[in-house]
Amino acid sequence: MVATQETIDKVKEVSSTYKYGFVTDLEAEKAPLGLSEDIVKFISHKKKEPRWLLEWRLKAYKKWLSMEAPNWAMVDFPKINFQDIYYYSAPKTKPKLNSLDEVDPELLRTYEKLGIPIKEQEVLAGVAVDYVFDSVSVATTFREKLAKEGIIFCPISEAVQTHPDLVQKYIGSVIPISDNYYAALNSAVFTDGSFVYIPKGVKCPMELSTYFRINEQNSGQFERTLIIAEDDTYVSYLEGCTAPQRDENQLHAAVVELVAMNNAEIKYSTVQNWYPGDKDGNGGIYNFVTKRGNCIGKKSKISWTQVETGSAITWKYPSCVLKGDDSVGEFYSVAVANNAQQADTGTKMIHIGKNTKSTIISKGISAGKAQNTYRGQVQIQKNAKGSRNFTQCDSLLIGDKCGAHTVPYINQFTPHARVEHEATTSKISEDQLFYCLQRGLDTEQATSLIVNGFCKEVMKELPMEFAVEAQKLIGISLEGSVG
Amino acid sequence: MLHNVKDNYIISVKDHVSQFEEKSFRKLASNDFKSWPSPREETWRLSRLGFLSRKEITPIKPNLKKQISSVSKFKGSKIIRFVDGALREDLSSKLPQGASLKILGEKDSLRCFHKFKDSNLKNHPSTNVSFSCTPSIVKLTIEKDVKIKDLFEIIYEGGDDYTSVHPALYIELKDNSIITIIERFNHLSSLIMPLQLVELKKNASINSLKIFNDNQQSYNLSANCTFLSEKSNYNSFSLIKGGLFTRSETHAYLKGENCNLNLNGVYLSCKNQHHDLTTAIYHDVPNCTSKQIVRGVLGGKSTGVFQGKVRVAPDAQKTDGQQMSRAILLSENAIANAKPELEIYADDVICAHGATVGEIDDDQLFYLKSRGISEKKAKQILIRAFLKDIINESVEESIQNYVFEEAELALSEIISKEI
Predict the structure, then answer these.
(1) Chain A contacts of B340, Cβ < 8 Å?
(2) Is A40 inside any structural domain?
(3) Mean pLDDT for chain A?
(4) CA atoms A60, A61, A67, A70: torsion sign
(5) How many CA atoms lie within 13 A of A350 on its CB side?
(6) Would residue A353 count as lying in a domain?
(7) Residue B209, φ and ψ in degrees, nearest 5
(8) Is residue B108 part of a domain?
(9) Domain extent at residue B183
(10) Pairing relation of β-strands B350-358 and A417-427?
C-alpha cells in the first residue's frame, strides 16, 4: 500500500509526461553520419580493437547488408533510414579517468537528475553500476570490491583489451551474427556495453547494474552485454534505460548474451523507460533488442524479468535455450503501452536437455491507442524428456481504442513432456473499480492500484529497489489513460 | 510467395482455363495462382506444401458416367453426391420441399468468387485453383422458415491418382431455417481442394459435421468461408483422420449481433500423416459468442497442427471468445504444434485461450491402475474418454454414435500400434 501511495504521489508530482526528457549539453565526439564499411572500421579503430574483432564486425556488416528487416511483428512504423543515424557518439572526456571526480560534472548532474547515485560514497545503495552514455561506458563503480572476489564487471570495450580470450570465446556464441537483422547490425556497430564474468563458485555479493542513456540527436545506441556465469555461481543484473525527449525517432538495437554453466544462476532484470514519444506518436525510441540466455550447464537457471513502459516501439523477446539437463528458464514480464506506443514482446523457451523447466508469466496492459502483443514460442525438442512448461499471459485493456494480442507457438517433438498455455484478455472489472471508488479513491488512483495488483506476480520477481521504481513507472505511464 | 517457374501444376491450371474469356471468374482466379504458399508465409509455416510442386498432377476432367457404389450410413438421409468434383444429380436424392440445388451461372459464380476474394482466404491456394478448375459451383438453398428434418449427407468421392478435384459448394440458409449436414470426403485423388461458402441469414441455424477420410496418399486443402448474420447459429465439428496431408481451414465472419459459433474438431493421426486444423474467427460486431475446442491424438511419425485465431474488431464489445486445444502424443516420433492466437481491439470482452500438449496424464492412469485395470487397458479408456467428451459436446445426440464409430476406426489403428 505504501508503494501504491508513492505511485499516486509520483503521478501528481510529475505533471509533465516524461520525466527524463531533458537533454544534457555535453560535447560529444561523433563518427560521420551514416553506415558503411568505413564506419565499422572507424568504430573498431576508435576502440583500438584487435584484428579478430574487426573482422568479426565486418562479417556481421556484410551479413546485415544481405538481410531484410523483419516485418512479422505486429508493429507499424515508417522504414528506418539507416544512413541517417550516428553510429558512434561519445562524450568528450579526458582520455583516461582515474576516479569519478574526473568525470565531466555536467554528466554527473545528468545522472543526478535521473536519480542515480553515481558517487561511490553512496555505498548504501549497494549496487555496482556501469553507466553507458550514448554509446560509451563512462564509469563503472565498485570495481575493486568485485575484483577481490575475482568478478570482472567492466565495459565490454575494456574487456576486449583486458580479457580478449573470454570475449572472443563467448561473443556471438549465444546470438550469432546471422541471428536476425538487428542482431547483425548490432554486431557490426556495437560501441559498448557491460561485460560480466563470475568465476567458479562465486556468488556475486551485490546487484550489478547498468544504466543506459541516449543523449545525442539522431544517434543510435547499440550496446552489447555479455554475462558469463561459471559453475556454481549466482549473479543478479539490473538494467535501466532513459532518453531525452525529441521529435524524431531514435534507434536502440542492443544484444544481450547470457551464458550459464553447471549450477549457475543468472537473474536479469530490466526496467525499460526509453522516451515513448508524445501523445500523437511523434518521436520516441525504437527499441529492437535481441536477448538470449544459454543454459549450457546442468541445473543452471536463467531468469528474465522485465518491466517495459517506454519506447515508441518495442520489439524484444528475451529467450532461454535450455541445453543442460535440469536447467530452468523463467520469463516474467510487464509491458505497458499507452497513447501511440506499440509493443511486440514475449519470449522463446527452447527445451533441449532432459527435465528442463520453464515458466512464462506475461502481463500486458494497453491504454490509449496502444497495441500490445505477446508473442512467444515454447519448443520441446526430441530429447527433452520430462520437460515442463507453464505459460500464462494476461492482457488488460484500458479504453476502447487500444488492442491486446496474444500469439503463442507450441512445438512439441516428444510425448514425454507437458506444455500448458493459458491466456485471458479483459478490461478492469466494474466491480473492482466500484469497490475502490467507494473507498474514496478517484478513478486514476483506483486504476493504478488495480493495475499494480494485476502485475504483482511479476513485480515480486524484481529486486527491491527496482520494484519500487517499476511501480512508479507504471503509474506514470498510464497517466491520462482513464477518466 | 515462391516463384517456381518449373511448377507443372501451375502450367496445367493455366491450360485448363485457357479456353475461357479474360473476364471469366476462372481466368481471374487462375491469374492469381502464381505459386504455392512458401513456408515463410506465417500460416503455412507449420504445414508445408513444397512437395506438391514436385508432383505430376493435373486438374481432373470429370467423368459424368462414372458409377459409384458407396452407400449412405443413415436411413432416410438425403444424399447429395459429388463425383470427381462435379455434382451428380443422377446419383443424389430428391430433396425435400424448401431445399434446392442449383448450378450457378457465370454472374453468380463471379459474385461467389469475390466473396472469397474479399475474405482472408483470398490467397489460399484452393481459392485460386478451385475457382479456376471447378466443374461448377453448386448452390444449396434452404428457404425461409424451413426446418429440414431429414439429415443431409454430402458425399465427395471419385478422382484418380495424379489428378486434382475441385468441388465447390455454396450453402445459403435463409431466415429462420434449420438444417443438419454431414459431409464426407472420400476422394482417391492426389490433390483435393474443396471450396465452401456458407451464408447464414437472420436466425438461421446449421449443424455441420465434416469427416475427412481421403485416400492415404492424398493432399486435402479444404477452404471454408462462412458469414453469420444476426442471431444465427453455426455449429461445426470436423473429424480429420484420412489423407497423407489434410488441412481444413475455416474463416468465419460474425457480421450480425447475437450470433453464435462453435468450431470444434478432432484429428487422429498416425504413420506419417500431417493433419492441420486452421481457423480464423472474426468478431466484427458486438454481443457474439464463439467457442472452439480442438483435440488431437497422434501416433507414428505424424504431425498435428492447430492454428486458431480470434480477432475482435474495435467495436465488437461484449464478445465472448473461447478457445481450447489439447493434443496427446502417443509416439516418440509424433509432433504437435499449436498456435492459438488472440487479436483484440475492443476492451469490454471476455476472451481466453488455452493449449496443452503432453502424454496421457499420470494421475489419471494411476487412478485406473489402482483399481486393477491394466496399463494398456487404462490408456485405451482414457484416450477414448478424451474423444467421447468432445464428440458428445459438439454433435447432435442422434449422430454421436456414428461419429464415435468413425473416430474409432482410426483410433483403433493408432491404439494397436502405440499402446
Answers:
(1) 406, 408, 421, 423
(2) yes
(3) 82
(4) positive
(5) 13
(6) yes
(7) -125, 130
(8) yes
(9) 8-256
(10) antiparallel
| Mean pLDDT along residues B326-351 | 92
Helix %, strand %, coil % for chain A, to 5? 25, 35, 40
Give the count of domains, chain A.
1
For B284, residues 6+ apart whose C-beta sits below 8 A from its C-beta are B253, B254, B255, B313, B316
Q: Is B339 on the interface with A (CB under 8 A)?
A: yes
DSSP H helical ranges for A198-249: none
Judge whether B98 lies within some domain: yes
One-letter identity of residue A208: L
Residue B388 exposed, middle or buried by CB count within 10 Å (0-12, 13-18, 19+): middle
Any domain includes B293: no
Q: Is residue B201 part of a domain?
A: yes
User: Cα separation of A296 and A277, whole Å?
Assistant: 39
At which residue does the C-alpha cell 584484428 appear? A51
**CA neighbor of A10 nearest in space, from A130, A157, A104, A115:** A115
What's the burial of B228, exposed, middle or buried (CB within 10 Å: 0-12/13-18/19+)? buried
Domain total of chain B: 1
The strand pairing partners of B187, in sequence order, are B158
Report the run of H or E that residue B86 belongs to, with start and end: strand B86-87
User: For residues A57 and A60, what is the distance between their CA atoms, to the nearest angstrom?
Assistant: 5
CA distances in angstroms from A80 to A286, A373, B299, listed in the order given: 10, 21, 48
Residue-wise pLDDT tens digits, B356-392: 999 998 999 999 999 999 999 999 999 999 999 999 9
pLDDT beyond 70 at B2: no
Judge whether B33 and B362 are in contact, CB under 8 Å: no
Find chain A residues with C-beta within 8 A of B357's C-beta.
380, 410, 412, 417-419
pTM of the model: 0.86
Residue B365 touches chain A, beta carbons under 8 Å: no
Which CA distances in Å does B292 have to A28, B265, B295, B315, B359?
Answer: 58, 8, 10, 22, 21
Q: Please state which of the ranges A408-412, A424-428, B57-61, B96-100 shows the lowest mean pLDDT.
A: A424-428
Q: Is residue A483 assigned to a domain?
A: no
Spell out the alpha helix ranges (H) of B42-155.
Answer: 106-118, 125-133
Its domain, for residue A430, covers: 2-477
Termini Cα distance of chain B: 42
Query: Cβ(A171)–Cβ(A157) under 8 Å?
Result: no
Residue type, A402: C
A482 in any annotated domain: no
Q: Does B41 touch chain A (CB under 8 A)?
A: no
- The minimal CB distance from B347 to the residues A400, A411, A423 is found for A400
Chain B residues with CB inside 8 Å of A380's CB? Answer: 357
**Whole-complex ipTM:** 0.85
Burial of A328 (0-12, 13-18, 19+ CB in 10 A): buried
Pick from A79, A83, A209: nearest CA to A141: A209
